[in-house]
Specification:
Strand content: under 5%
Shape: rod-shaped
Mean pLDDT: 77
Number of strands: 0
Distance between the termini: 67 Å
Order of helices and strands: H
Low-confidence stretches: none
Radius of gyration: 19 Å
Largest sheet: none
C-alpha cells in the first residue's frame, strides 16, 4: 500500500522527486508567496493613497497626455 500523503492531489512531491528537486520546488513556492505578498502590499498602498504611482506593476495602465 502506498503512502496516501504523497499524492499530486494534495500538492505534495511525487515519490520520484529527489531532495534537490524538492528543495528547488520549495524555493519557487517561497518566492511566489513573497511576490504575492509584495503585490498585495502595493495594491493596499494604492487603495489607501489613490496615487497611480502606487499601482502594482502589471496593473498600471499607460495614459496618453
Amino acid at each position: 500500500m502506498s503512502d496516501p500523503t504523497i499524492t499530486p492531489e494534495v500538492g505534495l512531491a511525487d515519490a520520484d522527486m529527489t531532495l534537490s528537486e524538492l528543495a528547488e520546488r520549495a524555493e519557487r513556492l517561497i518566492a511566489a508567496a513573497a511576490q504575492k505578498r509584495d503585490y498585495r502590499r502595493q495594491l493596499s498602498l494604492f487603495l489607501r493613497t489613490g496615487d497611480p504611482e502606487d499601482l502594482p506593476e502589471g496593473l498600471a495602465t499607460e495614459r496618453e497626455s
